[in-house]
Amino acid sequence: MIKQDTSENQVNIIYLGIGSNLGNKKLNIEKAKFELIQNNINILKSSSYYKSFSWPNNKNPKFLNIVIKVHTILNPIELLKKCKKIEIHLGRKKSPKNSPRICDIDILDYNQIIKKNGILLPHPRIHNRNFVLLPLFEINKNWTHPATKHHIKRLISSLSNRDITSIKQI
Asked: Is the dihedral of CA 88, 89, 90, 93 positive or negative?
């Protein structure tokens, strides 16, 4: 009998951020969710939609964002590759950083792992993004940042008043 490493087929709990600020934003996000499911990435919970200004240029079209809790047996690099393929399949084009886009899928937190080579985990700017923290709080009020160990309520309370008032749940 061959003994199998249990970590190999472990189901991982991951939080993904999905955003769009071009075309039919809601449909783009729904298509991304469908594609994730088709790639054996199971959605456990999904936040409401949140509308926010584009960053860093708020003259660009507003974003629609959600956070989803998923599980998969994919490792972080495999998951990142799948997410990038989905973005391209949905029409994302190579463009300068922070340009408007049809679909953006970010790995926010992967099993509370801290990783710095090959992929940065948790997402390096998760702690100061209203469009991530508010939907994440909606689906997990007890989430803590893997690196800083700060509770999500503390991270939200450290956002500026402008960041809090400029985002709308829809």
From this structure: positive
Q: What is the pLDDT of residues 132-158, one digit of tens each?
A: 999 999 999 999 999 999 999 999 999
Q: Distance (Å, rounded) from C-alpha 39 to C-alpha 89?
A: 13
Calpha distance 78→85 (Å, rounded): 11
CB atoms within 10 A of CB 63: 21
Positive/negative CA dihedral, 159, 146, 38, 89:
positive
Distance CA 141, CA 152 (A): 7
Between helix 76-89 and helix 25-38 the angle, nearest 10°, is: 130
**49-99 pLDDT, tens digit each:** 999 999 878 899 999 999 999 999 999 999 999 999 999 999 998 887 878
The answer to whether residues 104 and 92 touch, using CB atoms and an 8 Å cutoff, is yes
Q: Which two tokens stand for residue 3?
A: 């003994």
Which three-class secondary structure state does DSSP give residue 151? strand
Structural domains of the chain ordered from first start: 12-169 (3.30.70.560)
